[in-house]
């Protein structure tokens, strides 16, 4: 049996890998840090919560629904807010404020939805709930230990195949590389972006059930998670989906493991500052490796090692 | 003045006097914060998405240090632990302050000074990334730092007592014990500070420094090429603006009379200043003033409506003896609608009126006649054109 903290770290890292891949997709297309992305994770969390509690569905069964709802929410953000603002020629700062405002609207809507659940179904603990029940056990480990890394692997392979083996993927890469040039060869950039935002939102939504099974959720959990998702994406370099996958994995693993080790060595007070670890990672990345881990020149690093 | 009460003037069942006092306090604090944001984002083009950090830092250190210092100076026994006894100690400090206007004003100035210094320090630290990072990375970093500071406040109890909170010495009680008198004095003091900062900001905006700030914002390379020290300018602006934010935090903590981590949220102290800035018009101090007033008025009005509607609905999750459940009459907790309205209004302004109520005007320079005269094109005191 593995150490529980290692299991927790693997699960957390895998979930963050999925989340930061989605965020990086939104950043690659519109070049705006999407502050509303976290709340789309909350949409996924609440989709799962609703289906599990009211329809008695296994939380794993809610993943496709969470994907679709997250994707739709994300497309709505793109089509209703970001696309019109970009068309008006708004500055980057304006777009950032707009996503911050959208996040607030989401938190409001999700709270209203939770109120509705209270009103309609007499649920009292729907604004802050503990881990969803229904996970299986295999070889003495929680099912998430297998399903979360598997989901991350499937997502990564799926995105790789989508981007390299399909016509849509190739047009997406072209549109990201140079939108104007892509337009001249007849690629519908707006449609490509819309689909990309659907996939990105889908990834956010899909990570919701995993997060809810692991740690439960609240109406603002996504809005608070956004900081960790950002630091994962910054570590990944914000320029590559695969970098984001690795960044998410690393940030999740580091956060849990450093917290556990620090808690052992320094005392339990250390756990209260666990959420500072991603911030430290973000600061260090921005200071010494601003382009993220994808910019590391491994060959030069190896040569340098050999010389030593 | 002990027996004096602030009169009650009911209009439609609402006491107009206390309504406007509350509105004024809200207006003054947000005017200060938004003026500082305007200096950074409106004039110099540094998008500060971590305003919460500077306001909360100023407020927390002001509460924490001024209370301890006052207890030490006034020889009030702290006992074994300031944290556990903070409510009692601050109560004793308040009693001394109430009888002694000079001490009260001294403590008021001390708190402001602590808030300003702490804000300036945080601004100085944050100028390191602000000079090196692009807007989007800077936004993420400041937002993350502010959120971590909020978590820090909730966990580190020596600062403001974490979940227990901490009393904040009240420098306004000497005005009298009558109902509402203390709040009126608080409002007056806050308006004086806000007015001073407004005059200062306006003078900066009209000075050569103000024109330099806009030049840095509009074209960094060109202003660097004509010899402006961009690094020094941005650092200066961040330090000054953060000091103002820290002072406004200290004012808010003194007004509340207590300080607890849950006050410091991203919504209240980062988003709302941005809403006001864009509503009034960025790069325009008068716009900030108008925006603060409009926003304060609307929010206080919503607050009154909430009070009325709140009577109709029981608290969420509440079940009384006869089985009446919370939200029996209203399916939605009215407090949530505020989030929705503020977010939606901000998006609508960005879409349809991105310049705000009062758009930025061109820079203040010499009058046209004077310029013509200096250039020799025939004006009031120059030579006539040849």
How does this model look, in words?
The complex is a heterodimer of chains A (308) and B (386). In chain A, 75% of the residues lie in helices and 3% in strands. By secondary structure, chain A is mainly alpha-helical. Chain A has one domain. In chain A, the strands form 2 sheets. Chain A has a two-stranded antiparallel sheet. In chain A, strands 2-3 form a two-stranded antiparallel sheet. In chain A, helix 2 (37-54) packs antiparallel against helix 3 and helix 9 (221-236) runs parallel beside helix 11 (276-288). The longest helix of chain A has 30 residues, at 92-121. Chain A is globular. Chain B has one domain (13-311). Chain B has 14 helices and 4 strands. At the A-B interface, helix 3, helix 4, helix 9 and helix 11 of A face helix 5, helix 11 and helix 13 of B.
Order of strands in the sheet with most strands of chain A: 1-4
Oligomer: heterodimer
First CA to last CA of chain B: what distance? 72 Å
DSSP summary: helix tally of chain B: 14
Helix content of chain B: 55-70%
Give the strand order of the largest sheet of chain B, numbering strands 1, 2, ... along the chain: 1-2
Overall geometric form of chain B: globular
Strand content of chain A: under 5%
What's this, in brief?
With 308 residues, chain A is an all-alpha fold. Chain A contains twelve helices and four strands. Chain A has one domain.
């Amino acid at each position: 049996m593995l150490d529980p903290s290692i299991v927790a770290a693997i699960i957390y890292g895998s979930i963050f890998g999925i989340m930061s891949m989605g965020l990086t997709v939104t950043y690659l297309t519109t070049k705006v840090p999407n502050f509303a992305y976290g709340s789309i994770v909350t949409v996924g969390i609440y989709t799962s919560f609703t289906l599990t509690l009211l329809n008695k569905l296994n939380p794993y069964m809610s993943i496709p629904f969470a994907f679709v709802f997250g994707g739709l929410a994300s497309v709505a953000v793109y089509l209703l807010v970001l696309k019109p603002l970009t068309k008006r020629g708004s500055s980057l700062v304006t777009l950032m404020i707009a996503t911050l405002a959208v996040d607030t609207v989401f938190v409001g809507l999700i709270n209203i939805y939770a109120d509705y659940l209270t009103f309609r179904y007499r649920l009292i603990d729907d604004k802050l709930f503990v881990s969803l029940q229904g996970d299986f056990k295999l070889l003495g480990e929680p099912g998430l230990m297998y399903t979360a890394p598997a989901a991350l692997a499937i997502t990564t392979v799926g995105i790789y195949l989508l981007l390299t083996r399909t016509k849509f993927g190739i047009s997406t890469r072209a549109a990201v590389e140079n939108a104007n040039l892509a337009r001249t060869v007849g690629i519908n950039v707006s449609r490509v972006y819309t689909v990309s935002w659907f996939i990105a939102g889908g990834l956010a939504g899909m990570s919701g059930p995993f997060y809810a099974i692991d740690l439960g959720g609240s109406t603002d959990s996504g809005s608070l998670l956004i900081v960790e998702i950002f630091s994962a994406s910054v570590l990944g370099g914000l320029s590559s989906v695969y970098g984001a996958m690795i960044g998410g994995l690393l940030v999740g693993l580091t956060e849990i493991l450093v917290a556990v080790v620090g808690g052992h060595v320094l005392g339990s007070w250390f756990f209260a500052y666990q959420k500072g670890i991603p911030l430290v990672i973000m600061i260090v990345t921005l200071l010494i490796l601003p382009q993220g881990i994808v910019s590391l020149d491994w060959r030069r690093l190896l040569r340098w090692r050999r010389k030593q | 003045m002990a027996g004096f009460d602030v009169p009650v003037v009911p209009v439609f069942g609402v006491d107009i006097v206390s309504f406007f006092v509350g509105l004024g306090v809200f207006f003054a604090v947000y005017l200060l914060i938004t003026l500082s944001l305007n200096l950074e984002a409106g004039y110099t083009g540094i998008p500060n998405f971590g305003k919460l950090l500077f306001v909360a830092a100023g407020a927390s250190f002001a509460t924490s240090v001024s209370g301890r210092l006052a207890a030490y100076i006034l020889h009030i026994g702290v006992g074994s632990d300031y944290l556990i006894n903070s409510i009692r100690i601050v109560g004793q400090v308040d009693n001394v302050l109430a009888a002694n206007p000079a001490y009260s004003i001294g403590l008021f100035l001390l708190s402001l000074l602590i808030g300003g210094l702490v804000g300036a320090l945080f601004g100085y630290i944050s100028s390191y990334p602000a000079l090196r990072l692009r807007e989007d990375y800077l936004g993420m970093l400041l937002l993350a730092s502010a959120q971590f500071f909020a978590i820090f406040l909730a966990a580190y109890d020596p600062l403001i007592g974490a979940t227990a909170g901490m009393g904040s010495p009240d420098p306004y009680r000497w005005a009298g014990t009558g109902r509402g008198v203390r709040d009126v004095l608080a409002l007056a003091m806050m308006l004086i500070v806000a007015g001073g900062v407004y005059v200062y900001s306006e003078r900066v905006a009209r000075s050569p420094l103000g024109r330099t700030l806009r030049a840095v914002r509009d074209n960094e390379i060109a202003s660097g090429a004509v010899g402006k020290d961009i690094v020094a300018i941005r650092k200066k602006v961040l330090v000054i603006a953060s000091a103002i934010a820290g002072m406004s935090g200290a004012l808010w903590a003194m007004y509340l009379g207590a300080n607890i981590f849950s006050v410091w949220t991203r919504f209240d102290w980062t988003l709302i200043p941005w809403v006001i800035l864009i509503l009034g018009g960025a790069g325009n101090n008068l716009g900030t003033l108008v925006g603060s007033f409009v926003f304060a008025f609307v929010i206080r009005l919503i607050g009154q409506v909430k009070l009325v509607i709140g009577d109709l609905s029981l608290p969420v999750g509440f079940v009384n003896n006869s089985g009446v459940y919370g939200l029996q009459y209203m399916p939605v907790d009215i407090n949530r609608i505020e989030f929705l309205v503020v977010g939606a209004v901000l998006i609508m302004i960005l879409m349809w009126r991105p310049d705000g109520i009062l758009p930025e005007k061109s820079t203040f320079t010499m009058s046209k006649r004077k310029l013509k005269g200096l250039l020799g094109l025939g004006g009031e005191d120059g030579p006539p054109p040849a």
